[in-house]
Amino acid sequence: QVQLVESGGGLVQAGGSLRLSCVASGRTFSTYAMGWFRQAPGKEREFVAAISWSGRNTFYADSVKGRFTISRDNAKNTVYLQMNSLKPEDTAVYYCAAETLRGSYQQIPLKSVSEYDYWGQGTQVIVSS
């Protein structure tokens, strides 16, 4: 099993930056693709970014491409989301997720909420205008 704990959220002005972290427990964290998702009030949870088990392949939602960067440090069991040039529309609860259903060593991470089976509790990001 994998347990995920996010941190790093907070209140920031538009144009500012935040770095989210997600620490995983579980022996095989380093072998799974990981993703970041977000959910704004009254909206469905949506894909933000995903990374393959090795970190070689990353994918982003069009809305964050060029502003957000996903990365991972398997030695520290941690995945990161660096968020720059933040906008008020980035305000949401951000969730880290692990995709284990397909098994280990997936080089092409998925983008669908339904494909991820382990989730953290979320961390709030508020961007003021």
Please characterize this protein's 3D structure.
There is one protein chain. With 129 residues, the chain is mostly beta strands. Helices cover 0% and strands 47% of the residues. The chain is built from no helices and eleven strands. It has strands spanning 3-7, 10-13, 18-25, 33-39, 46-51, 58-60, 68-73, 78-83, 92-99, 118-119, 123-128. Strands 2, 4, 5, 6, 9, 10 and 11 form a seven-stranded mixed sheet that branches. A four-stranded antiparallel sheet has the order 1-3-8-7, with no helix packed on it. β5 (46-51) and β6 form a beta hairpin. The chain is globular and about 40 Å long. The mean pLDDT is 95.
Anisotropy-based shape: globular
Termini separation: 40 Å
- Kindly estimate the percentage of residues that lie in beta strands according to DSSP: over 45%
Averaged pLDDT: 95
The class by helix and strand makeup works out as mainly beta
Which regions contain 5 or more consecutive residues with pLDDT less than 50? none
Q: Give the % helix.
A: under 10%
Computed over alpha carbons, the radius of gyration is 14 Å
Biggest β-sheet description: 7 strands, mixed
- Number of alpha- plus pi-helical segments: 0
**Helix and strand pattern:** EEEEEEEEEEE
Topology, number of strands: 11
